[in-house]
Amino acid sequence: MNPNQAREILKKVRQIEIRTRRLVTDSLAGQYHSVFKGRGINFEDVREYSPGDEVRTIDWNVTARTGRPFVKKFTEERELTILLMVDVSASGNFGSGAQSKRELSAELASVLAFSAIRNNDKVGLILFSDQVEKYIPPKKGRRHVLRVVREILFFEPKQKGTDIANALDFANKVVTRRAVAFLVSDFQASEYQQALRMTNKRHDTVAVMVVDPRERDMPDVGLLAVEDSETGELMEVNTSSPDIRSYFSNSSRNRLDVIRRDLRSSGVDVLELDTGKPYMPALMQFFATREARRV
Hints:
Layout: H1 3-23, H2 26-35, E1 40-48, H3 60-66, E2 70-77, E3 81-87, H4 101-118, E4 122-128, E5 132-139, H5 142-154, H6 164-174, E6 180-185, H7 193-202, E7 204-211, E8 223-227, E9 234-238, H8 242-265, E10 269-274, H9 280-294
Parallel strand pairs: 3-4, 3-6, 6-7, 7-10
Antiparallel strand pairs: 1-2, 4-5, 8-9
């Protein structure tokens, strides 16, 4: 890497840091804390029962011994591990507007990572294509988060395809403590549902589906050479044909509906982001929905 390339990388990472730090407001950080607060609880002590206490917290042994009802007190395990699993296959480089799917993935990961370190949580990273390309173990701190962002943006994968199941199996092996796992992908893959269900049993798993408007609707621009970014297959398409555009739109919508159905049948929460729209409203709504469900 020459000095000019290094400067450009640092500049891009710094721009994302400034932009996402501004977004990680007290409000967002508070929502993050509420939604992803400690996944475990530790027994601390017992105290006498008070009206309004949940019956299921009664310590029956102490109650029988003393003749008065006592309930168990718990403290929440506060520190979390946030695991970012980011798809870096070739299809992520597509973007019809100002941002590619990979750039949107990096910015979302930045917001989550800065929210995490603001809450003194650890952040880990898995980059995958049809193999696990890179693993960064969970750590804390700003320098660590900046490294994570840099890798998502500029890592050059060896492979072009996508194997989500393999990445999930790897995560289950290397991350032994329960984590909040964000699986960020366009989900242009198959046969990952069982692995996703298994991962969701071990970790609090969120599927982040990243799409681009041009993957749903084809513009009318005449003859267009189209390349499949993962297979390299080329074809010429007459986009002026209403029938072809309609077929493309229907096929795309059906494909996205199948992905949504597969994700939800796996029991995970789903956050859908579009490169053509601001991602913060969708993220805030996702946090609010999860918090309401938890309450």
